[in-house]
Specification:
Strands 1, 2, 3, 4 and 5 form a five-stranded antiparallel β-sheet that branches. The protein has two helices and five strands, in the order E-E-E-E-H-H-E. The two termini are about 25 Å apart. About 20% of the residues lie in helices and about 35% in strands. The protein has one domain.
């Protein structure tokens, strides 16, 4: 997988980008399982991505839903048995 973060919001603790091989878009959030910190990548639609610049509040809401694990069906890479918690 080749991931390209297009928008990074450090204070909001999420990024939006594109997986270059498939062309799919994603929203990523940082997580930690106590041993390692890593990113979880949630697939977003092209329409969500296209609206992003005009709808930061919408992306913030998607990040919050991802942190609450309400969008797990969108995970691009399924977590292992030691899934981290959002940080």
């Amino acid at each position: 997988m080749q991931l390209d973060d297009i928008f990074i919001f450090k204070s909001e603790r999420f990024a939006v980008g594109q997986e270059l091989e498939s062309g799919k878009y994603y929203l990523s959030i940082p997580v930690s399982n106590g041993l390692v910190e890593y990113e979880e990548y949630y697939e977003i639609t092209q329409e969500e991505f296209d609206r992003f610049s005009a709808a930061l509040a919408e992306m913030r809401e998607l990040a919050e839903q991802s942190r609450a694990r309400k969008l797990d069906e969108r995970l691009i890479m399924k977590p292992g048995s030691r899934r981290g918690s959002p940080i």
